[in-house]
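Let us work through a complete example step by step.
Step 1: write down the sequence.
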Amino acid sequence: MAKKKETSVEEKLRALYDLQLIDTRVDEIRNVRGELPLEVEDLENDIAGLDTRLEKFTTEVADFELQIKAKKNDIEVAKEEHKKYAARLDKVRNNREYNSITKEQEFQELEMQLAEKNIKEFQAKIEQKNITIEELTGKTEERKKHLKGKKSELDARLSETAKEEEMLAKKSAEFEKKIEEHLIAAYKRIRSNVKNGLAIVPVERGASGGSFFTIPPQTQMEIASRQKIITDEHSGRILIDAQLAAEEKEKMGAIFSK
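Step 2: predict the structure and record it as tokens.
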């Protein structure tokens, strides 16, 4: 059984830099989208919040309407009771009974007045809630129109780059297979810690890309020999020589342009 060929340090460096070029290209695509995905998400959250408030106010209006219905029923009951007491007045036999009945009538009249007052209060609250519901409905419709426009814009941008992103994802998985897990983990960790997402940079004019710190000549020679993976002591980035970077950029440029 043939022994599996071991990947050289140079091959690992090339694969890592290819991965970096892919991720940089993905970053560029996402930058083109700008803030659109976040804007869409914010609008969706805003609409969800408005819908929740609308549901709350609508439920409150329905509750007030039920209470009005109950109070109207109380008024009808009080009216019937008042009629009954009025009929009994014709049959009273003494002042004590008369006073008792008239007090009951007065009580029923007060019950009706209180119910009428409650109904007016509930109607005022319903009117105020309906004004708020109308305002919220207007805001919701406005947000939904805005969201529709933003989604259309985002979908258009996504459709433009969908095939390229799919290709880049496949290539990324392909290059990751050439690299040990600990190197992939280190690459991703470095990438997440640097501002521009560049975890691997070439040495340019004696310094690592984007840095002003000069790299010692001996270290530059070691980087150019491609015998081991060397990191920049200042930024923590993995360093490669300019020639290797140029070769991989040309190779990946051809892939990206397909």
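Step 3: interpret the result. The domain at 36-162 is CATH 1.10.287.1490 (Helix Hairpins).
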